[in-house]
Amino acid sequence: MSRIAIYPGSFDPLTCGHVDIIRRGLAIFDQIVIAVAVNIRKQPLFSLDERLAIIEDEFQGHDGVVLDTFSDCLLVDYARRKGAVAILRGLRTSGDFEYELQMTHMNRTLAPTIETVFLAASPQTTHISSSLIKEVARFGGDVSSAVPDHVARRLSARFPS
Ligand code: COA
């Protein structure tokens, strides 16, 4: 039986931090479902279709990576439907830890059989967040070390100098 993990997030846009967690997660799980969330609390820069296209560009032809969306449901219900054994999350800082621990405990209460597995973000990615990347790109800063090349090109097109 294949071990499936859900890697959920807004991915607005995908960063090198996300890519780091997904690639390393593939050494643990047979399949990672990258689940792009429609988060009503966030106003995305990139549309859902654009966010999906970005992830597809990055992981095209990559065995073990499946791309999907989810909205209007609990993450654990979605994970159950996909037959997942785990939710995969990255930890960058102690700030992430506080937030993630609360979500983990809530998810565990709702679905005791679905584990949350944390990977410590690689040191070169701990300063990266999608919001920071968008802010730096908006003001013409160089984000090439923090996002894949094709994402940097999309950001330049969105914020021409
Ligand atoms: N490297 C770089 N950045 C990272 C990262 C890493 N390893 N890990 C997280 N991030 C960043 C993301 O880029 C994002 O940045 P931003 O806020 O600047 O956009 C931020 O950390 C966290 O966002 P994200 O991972 O997209 O998660 P989220 O907080 O937007 O959504 C869900 C988390 C989708 C998992 C959560 O909202 C959810 O479960 N929703 C479904 C409803 C539900 O079940 N609710 C109950 C939960 S207990």
Can you describe what's shown?
- The protein has 161 residues and is an alpha/beta fold.
- It has a single domain (4-123), classed as 3-Layer(aba) Sandwich (Rossmann fold).
- Helices cover 40% and strands 19% of the residues.
- It has six helices and five strands, in the order E-H-E-H-E-H-E-H-E-H-H.
- Strands 3-2-1-4-5 form a five-stranded parallel β-sheet, with helices on both faces.
- Helix 2 links the parallel strand 2 (31-37) and strand 3.
- It is globular, with a radius of gyration of 15 Å.
- The model has no long low-confidence stretch (mean pLDDT 96).
- Residues 8-10, 12, 15, 17-18, 21, 37, 39, 74-75, 90, 92, 103, 106-107, 121, 125, 128-131 line the site of coenzyme A.
List keywords for this structure.
161 residues; alpha/beta; Rossmann fold; five-stranded parallel sheet; 6 helices; 5 strands; binds coenzyme A
Counting structural domains, the number is: 1
The outline comes out as globular
Mean pLDDT: 96
CATH class label: Alpha Beta
- Radius of gyration from the alpha-carbon trace, in angstroms: 15 Å
- Which H/E pattern describes the elements? EHEHEHEHEHH
The structure class reads alpha/beta
Task: Specify the CATH architecture.
Answer: 3-Layer(aba) Sandwich
Number of helices: 6
Ions, cofactors and other ligands present here are:
coenzyme A
Which fold name corresponds to the CATH topology? Rossmann fold
* CATH H-level superfamily: HUPs
Low-confidence runs of at least 5 consecutive residues: none
